[in-house]
Structures are given as structure tokens and as C-alpha cells.
Amino acid sequence: MKYIFIHIGKTAGTSFRKFLESNVSKPYWGYGKLWNITDLKDIDKFIEKEPIGMRIFDYFDLFSEHFQYGLHHYLKTKEYQYITVLRDPIKRTISSYRYAKDREWISHDVSFIDWFKEQYDTLIHYQINHISGAPFDLDVETKKNIAFKNMKSEKFLFGFTEHYNEFIDLCCNINNWVPEYKKTNISKTRNDVTEKEKIEISKILEDEILFYNEALKIYNNKYKKFINND
């Protein structure tokens, strides 16, 4: 079995990756490499960065990157499973803002709204783009429908940051893994985003919020026999 972890930023993905590594042999952390294949469809750029090239898909069992859905097209086997963690869009976006400040990618006096406007093209349909694997400029309703279809597939396992331990247990039930609940890479907590800013950003992220709410419904229906402990 090959496992493909779509690491969506600021969803406890670093912690979850450690859990995956403790259960899956031969992990490949393709950060800065695999992105070229799934997001840009540019194999040449991937080959430039990866000395052993396409052989990684034969050798490794776990692939992780901040990439979009689509890596399975490069696998020779049909025995694969996508895994990802989603998060409330407002909380995820605020966490990204704080992370950027922690890393000193932006000045601490840059406001949340100003930062968001600067990153608008990247943030507007962030989770939808990751899960759909569709071109960014495709209309959002089509992208959402593609994402929903992917999530309903038996080859796609997903959960939520807000129910992190429950998702760990779900993964263990489905894949016969051993749980590991520890979280790492947590941004410092600050009261740097106002309620007014949250309301403003929620209007801009309406599509993401609707997507997240529908994903919750799919999750509850798809995994009810596991999460209800039946």
C-alpha cells in the first residue's frame, strides 16, 4: 500500500506526519519537490531536484508535501490511500498569519487583513484547491464538486484538526496502526486578530466555509460506523 499525505498548511499536519512516520515504513518527505508534479504538472522541475527521479514512486511507501490531489497518477500500483486533515477556514487562516509572524516572514505590525489581501490568490480557495487537484482558475463550484467526489472515494481518508484525536483513532481503525496523539509546531497564541477582522474575513472565505461544512457532513456519513464506535 502507498500512502499520500496532502499536507494542508496549519492543520496540525506536522504532528500528523510524525504519526504517519511511526506507522508507515520508508517515508518520503517531498517538500519543495513533489509540489512541481501535482501543482504545476512539471516533471522536469521535479527531476532537477530529485537525483533518483521517478524511482521514488517504486521505492517509498509514504509521500508527503504541501501539494494538491493527483500524485496517484505517477504510481504503478492501484493500492494507494490519500490522507489529509482539514481545519475550520477562519482558524486555519489566522494560524497561517501567526505562523508567518513567528517565522518573521512578515513584520509584526502588519495587520491580519493587510496580510490576507497580499496573499489573497493563494488563500481564497486554499483547502478546496488542495483536495480537488483542479486548476486554480477553474470556477469554484466545479472545484468543490471535484473535491467532494475525491473525499467520498474509498481511497481518500480525511479528518479535522478540531477532532484530531478522533481522526488518529479513525486512521488506526482503518489501517491497523498504533496511535500517537502528541502535537508539535504550534504557533504562539496572541490576541492579534479582532472580532471585526474575523467577520470581514469570513465573508471573503464564504466558499471555503461552505466547503468545510459540507466536508463535515461527508465525514460523519462516511465514517459513522467508526466514529460512533458501533
Note the topology:
Elements lengths: L1 E5 L6 H9 L5 E3 L5 H4 L4 H7 L6 H4 L2 E4 L14 E7 L2 H14 L9 H7 L1 H4 L2 H7 L7 H13 L3 E5 L3 H12 L19 H10 L1 H17 L1 H4 L3
Explain this structure.
This protein has 230 residues and is of the alpha/beta class. The protein has a single domain, classed as 3-Layer(aba) Sandwich (Rossmann fold). Helices cover 49% and strands 10% of the residues. The chain has helices at 13-21, 35-38, 43-49, 56-59, 89-102, 112-118, 120-123, 126-132, 140-152, 164-175, 195-204, 206-222, 224-227; strands at residues 2-6, 27-29, 62-65, 80-86, 156-160. It has a five-stranded parallel β-sheet, sandwiched between helices. It is globular and about 50 Å long. It starts with a strand and ends with a helix. The model has no long low-confidence stretch (mean pLDDT 92).
Radius of gyration: 18 Å
The run of helices and strands is: EHEHHHEEHHHHHEHHHH
The CATH homologous superfamily is called P-loop containing nucleotide triphosphate hydrolases
Distance between the termini: 26 Å
Q: Outline, from the CA principal axes?
A: globular
| Proper CATH architecture | 3-Layer(aba) Sandwich
Total domain units: 1
- Mean pLDDT, as a whole number? 92
- According to CATH, what is the class? Alpha Beta
Q: Count the strands?
A: 5
Assembly classification: single chain
Largest sheet: 5 strands, parallel
CATH topology: Rossmann fold
